[in-house]
């Protein structure tokens, strides 16, 4: 459990930096995929990934769907943290609409549609460099703990 004696952050920039610091420790996001957290707002996040054809392509030379799913799953964790929740994925649906060219930067924007005490529902959209919709995502997350220093609601 998180320490309940931690002082809650109030400044939006401090909250954003704190969330970035939390995810710097995530070896999967940081070291392997190099997922970048572009924007953080309360209940809404944008992340991006510069794809690497040597790491992220399948045997046909296309971006592997698992890489896109990992990017989608990563955005849901960061989005949940933006409202102080530590979560695990219960269910995620991803509609693949198109792929991106290997080497492109992919961007995912998300927002919370339900912020309950035990579950969070997140909708997200994935775009290529030309702003073409690549995928839409719907995820249900189970709250397993709280980042007590991050308020459930904050402006910014």
Compressed to H and E, one letter per element, the order equals: HHEEHHEEEE
| DSSP summary: helix tally | 4
Strand arrangement in the largest pleated sheet: 1-2-4-5-6-3
Could you describe the largest sheet, including whether it forms a barrel? 6 strands, antiparallel
Would you tell me the structural class of the helices and strands?
alpha+beta
Taking the alpha carbons of the first and last residues, their distance comes to 27 Å
Shape: globular
Helix content: 25-40%
Average pLDDT confidence is 93
Contiguous uncertain segments of 5+ residues: none
Radius of gyration over C-alpha positions, nearest whole angstrom: 16 Å
The CATH superfamily name is: Hotdog Thioesterase
Number of domains: 1
What's the CATH architecture? Roll
CATH class: Alpha Beta
Q: What amount of the residues lies in strands?
A: 35-45%
Number of strands: 6
User: CATH topology, what is it called?
Assistant: Thiol Ester Dehydrase, Chain A
Note down, in words, how this protein is organized:
The chain is of the alpha+beta class. The protein has a single domain (12-146), classed as Thiol Ester Dehydrase, Chain A, CATH 3.10.129.10. It contains four helices and six strands. A six-stranded antiparallel beta sheet has the order 1-2-4-5-6-3. A hairpin with a 3-residue loop joins strand 4 (105-115) and strand 5. The longest helix is centred in the middle third of the chain and has 17 residues, at 65-81. The radius of gyration is 16 Å and the shape is globular. 31% of the residues are buried.
């Amino acid at each position: 459990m998180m320490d309940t004696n931690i002082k809650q952050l109030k400044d939006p920039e401090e909250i954003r930096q704190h969330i970035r610091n939390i995810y710097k420790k995530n070896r999967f996001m940081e070291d392997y995929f190099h997922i970048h957290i572009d924007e953080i707002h309360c209940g809404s996040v944008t992340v991006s990934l510069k794809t690497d054809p040597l790491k992220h392509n399948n045997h046909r030379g296309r971006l592997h769907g698992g890489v896109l799913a990992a990017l989608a799953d990563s955005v849901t964790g960061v989005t949940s943290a933006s409202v102080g929740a530590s979560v695990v994925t219960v269910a995620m649906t991803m509609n693949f609409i198109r792929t991106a060219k290997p080497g492109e930067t992919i961007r995912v924007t998300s927002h919370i549609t339900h912020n309950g005490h035990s579950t969070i529902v997140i909708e997200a959209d994935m775009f290529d460099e030309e702003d073409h919709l690549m995928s839409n995502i719907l995820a249900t997350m189970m709250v397993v703990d709280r980042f007590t220093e991050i308020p459930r609601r904050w402006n910014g």
